[in-house]
């Protein structure tokens, strides 16, 4: 399988990707825990059916020390006992933020209120930005049918 389009080869695509990488770097430099960020990236990518991003983020998470048990349970996080309350709040916010079109009204007040119990304003800003960014990356990769499976941890910096 090959991609429909190499976004990096076009002027606009190259500019966009450069800016998305820059925005992603800003989030990674925040105080949002890296483990939480990995969980959010993986869950949104699972929901959006982005094999490229699931491959990349699960490999990066494992490389950073995430356990196979937790990685295998992300899709079933509600029933899993391996996630902290803060991670569960982030996963709920990520799911609702990713499924905006499916949920009349978007992110619920309850999900937001729960997230505010575990994250300060800077971390919430990073979390919201991360949810928006991973959804943008997912859409770029799904639309262009980026193949999954060949990613190496740290490949994109």
UniProtKB/TrEMBL annotation:
Gene3D superfamilies in the cross-refs: AhpD-like
GO MF annotations, alphabetized: peroxiredoxin activity
Domain Carboxymuconolactone decarboxylase-like: 26-95
Alphabetically ordered keywords of this record: Oxidoreductase, Peroxidase
Pfam families assigned: CMD (PF02627)
Cytoplasm in keyword set: no
Keyword Oxidoreductase: yes
Protein name: AhpD family alkylhydroperoxidase
Organism from which the protein derives: Actinoplanes teichomyceticus
């Amino acid at each position: 399988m090959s991609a429909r389009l190499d976004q990096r080869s076009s002027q606009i695509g190259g500019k966009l990707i450069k800016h998305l990488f820059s925005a992603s770097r800003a989030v990674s430099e925040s105080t949002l825990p890296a483990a939480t960020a990995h969980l959010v990236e993986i869950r949104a990518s699972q929901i959006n059916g982005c094999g490229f991003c699931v491959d990349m983020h699960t490999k990066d998470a494992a490389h950073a020390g995430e356990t196979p048990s937790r990685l295998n349970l992300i899709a079933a996080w509600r029933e899993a006992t391996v996630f902290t309350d803060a991670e569960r709040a982030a996963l709920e916010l990520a799911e609702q933020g990713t499924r905006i079109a499916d949920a009349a009204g978007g992110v619920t007040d309850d999900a937001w209120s729960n997230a505010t119990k575990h994250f300060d304003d800077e971390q919430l800003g990073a979390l919201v930005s991360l949810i928006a960014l991973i959804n943008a990356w997912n859409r770029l990769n799904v639309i262009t049918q980026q193949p999954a499976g060949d990613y190496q941890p740290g490949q994109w910096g």
